[in-house]
C-alpha cells in the first residue's frame, strides 16, 4: 500500500460486530432468480451466512476474493477488518483514520482513496477503502470486511434467505406492485431508518424509529429502557456484544410485539443497551430481516418485505450463559459468564478456552451450529475446556434464561 501521509481522521465503523459465525459452502452462481417487481437482475449471486448476516465475495483493484458483509450500516466504500485480505494490493493511502464504534473505544486504520471495487459483474470506481492496521478477530470467522452504500445507492438489492441468493436490480425497471409490505426508509447522517411499532411489556404499542442494520447479528435492540427502574425489562444483565470500541453492556430480554407494516412478530429476543451512542430508538437486525425476502430500495427510499417459511419460528437465545469470542490464536475464549446461568453453576470461568461440546471439536467458524446445540432446554451437554493448559470437563443442563 502506498502511504502518502499520516493524519488523524475520526470515522465511524459499520454496525455491531459479529463475534461468532458459521460459513456455508458457496454454491454455484444462480442463473435464474425469483425476483418480484418484474425487473431483470443486472447481477445475481449466492451469499454465505456469517451468523445470519449475508457475506458477498468482492475484489479491490483486481485482488483475490475478499469476503464482505452486505451492511446497511456501512457508508460509502469498503471497510476491511482483516488487513491480510488486502496484503499485496496497491492502495493509495492518504490518511490515517481513527475508527470508533460501539463500546466507546477506537482502532487505528489507513484510509485509501481511488480504488476500484468489483462485485460479480458490477464495478464501482473511485471508492475509498478503510483498512484496520491490526486485525479485529474477524479473520477467524471467515469475514474480511463490509460493504454497503457503495452498492445500495446505485442498485436495488433483493435478499432471498430461503435460497441464500441476492439479486441486484436497476431502479428504473423495478416495480413494488408484488410486495406484501412496503415500509418507507429515511436517511439521516449516513444511517438508514425504518418506522415500526413495538410493545415491550405487553401493554401498549409505541411508534419507534429503528436503524436498519443488515450487519447487526441480532434480532432487535431497544434504547432507553434502562434509564429508570419502572422501565427496566426482565432479562439477564451482562455483555451484549463486543464492538470496535469494546464491550457493550446491558440487558437481554424480550419484546412482546413488533409490527413491521402489516406483519406482527411476537416474543422477540431483544437487547437493551445501557449506553446509547445513536439517536434512534433502536436497531432492526438481520435475525429478524432474514425471516423475509428483503428488498432494499435506497433509490426509492423503501424497504419491501415478503415472509418466508421461517417467519413463524420461535425466537430462542443461548441457554448456557456463555459469551464466546475468538482470541488472537483463533480459539474460542470465554469472554463473559452470565450470573446464575448453567455455565456459572458448572464453574466455567472467564478466560477458559472452549475446545469441544459433547466430544466434538469446536472452532469459531463452527460455533453457530453448535450454538443451536446450546439452545435445547433440558439437555445436558459436556464442555471440554482448556484452563491455563489444564484440560477440564464440565457438564451443564441447559435452560431458558429469558
Question: How would the blueprint of this fold be written?
Answer:
Blueprint: E1 2-3, E2 8-12, E3 41-46, E4 48-50, E5 53-60, E6 66-70, E7 78-80, E8 92-100, E9 106-119, E10 122-132, E11 145-147, H1 149-152, E12 156-160, E13 165-169, E14 181-188, E15 191-199, E16 206-213, E17 220-222, E18 235-243, E19 246-260, E20 263-273, E21 282-285, H2 286-289, E22 292-297, E23 302-307, E24 322-326, E25 332-337, H3 342-345, E26 353-357, E27 360-361, H4 367-373, E28 380-387, E29 390-397
Parallel strand pairs: 1-8, 2-8, 6-11, 7-10, 16-21, 17-20
Antiparallel strand pairs: 3-13, 4-5, 5-6, 5-9, 7-11, 8-9, 9-10, 12-13, 12-22, 14-15, 14-23, 15-16, 15-19, 17-21, 18-19, 19-20, 22-23, 24-25, 25-26, 26-27, 26-28, 28-29
What's the CATH topology name of the largest domain? Cathepsin D, subunit A, domain 1
- What fraction of the residues are assigned to beta strands by DSSP? over 45%
Report the CATH architecture of the largest domain.
Beta Barrel
CATH class division of the largest domain = Mainly Beta
Order of neighbouring strands in the sheet with most strands:
5-6-11-7-10-9
Amino acid at each position: 500500500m502506498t502511504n502518502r501521509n499520516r493524519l488523524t481522521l475520526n470515522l465511524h465503523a459499520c454496525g455491531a460486530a459479529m463475534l461468532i459465525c458459521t460459513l456455508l459452502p458457496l454454491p454455484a452462481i444462480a442463473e435464474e432468480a425469483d425476483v418480484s417487481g418484474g425487473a431483470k437482475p443486472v447481477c445475481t449471486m449466492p451469499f454465505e451466512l456469517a451468523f445470519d448476516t449475508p457475506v458477498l465475495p468482492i475484489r479491490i483493484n483486481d485482488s483475490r476474493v475478499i469476503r464482505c458483509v452486505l451492511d446497511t450500516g456501512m457508508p460509502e466504500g469498503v471497510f476491511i477488518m482483516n488487513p491480510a485480505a488486502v496484503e499485496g494490493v496497491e492502495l493509495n493511502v492518504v490518511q490515517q483514520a481513527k475508527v470508533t464504534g460501539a463500546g466507546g473505544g477506537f482502532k487505528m486504520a489507513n484510509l485509501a482513496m481511488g480504488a476500484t471495487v468489483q462485485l460479480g459483474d458490477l464495478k464501482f470506481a473511485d471508492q475509498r477503502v478503510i483498512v484496520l492496521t491490526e486485525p479485529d478477530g474477524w479473520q477467524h470467522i471467515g469475514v474480511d470486511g463490509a460493504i454497503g452504500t457503495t452498492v445500495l445507492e446505485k442498485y436495488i438489492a433483493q435478499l432471498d434467505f430461503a435460497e441464500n441468493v441476492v439479486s441486484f436490480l436497476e431502479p428504473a425497471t423495478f416495480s413494488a406492485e408484488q410486495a406484501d409490505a412496503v415500509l418507507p426508509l429515511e436517511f439521516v447522517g449516513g444511517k438508514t431508518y425504518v418506522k415500526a411499532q413495538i410493545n415491550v411489556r405487553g401493554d401498549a404499542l409505541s411508534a419507534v424509529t429503528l436503524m436498519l442494520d443488515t450487519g447487526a447479528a441480532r434480532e432487535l435492540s431497544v434504547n432507553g429502557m434502562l434509564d429508570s427502574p419502572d422501565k427496566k425489562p426482565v432479562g439477564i444483565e451482562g455483555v451484549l456484544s463486543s464492538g470496535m470500541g469494546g464491550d457493550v453492556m446491558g440487558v437481554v430480554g424480550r419484546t412482546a410485539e413488533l409490527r413491521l407494516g402489516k406483519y406482527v412478530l411476537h416474543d422477540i429476543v431483544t437487547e437493551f443497551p445501557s449506553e446509547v451512542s445513536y439517536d434512534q430508538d433502536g436497531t432492526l437486525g438481520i435475525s429478524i430481516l432474514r425471516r423475509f425476502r428483503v428488498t432494499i430500495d435506497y433509490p426509492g427510499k423503501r424497504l419491501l418485505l415478503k415472509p418466508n417459511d421461517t417467519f413463524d419460528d420461535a425466537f430462542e437465545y443461548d441457554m448456557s450463559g456463555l459469551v464466546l469470542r475468538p482470541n488472537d490464536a483463533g480459539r474460542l475464549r470465554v469472554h463473559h459468564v452470565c450470573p446464575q446461568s448453567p455455565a456459572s453453576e458448572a464453574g466455567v470461568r472467564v478466560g477458559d478456552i472452549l475446545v469441544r461440546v459433547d466430544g466434538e471439536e469446536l472452532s469459531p467458524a463452527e460455533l453457530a451450529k453448535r450454538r443451536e446445540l446450546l439452545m435445547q432446554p433440558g439437555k445436558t451437554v459436556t464442555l471440554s475446556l482448556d484452563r491455563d493448559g489444564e484440560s477440564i470437563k464440565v457438564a451443564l443442563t441447559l435452560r431458558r434464561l429469558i
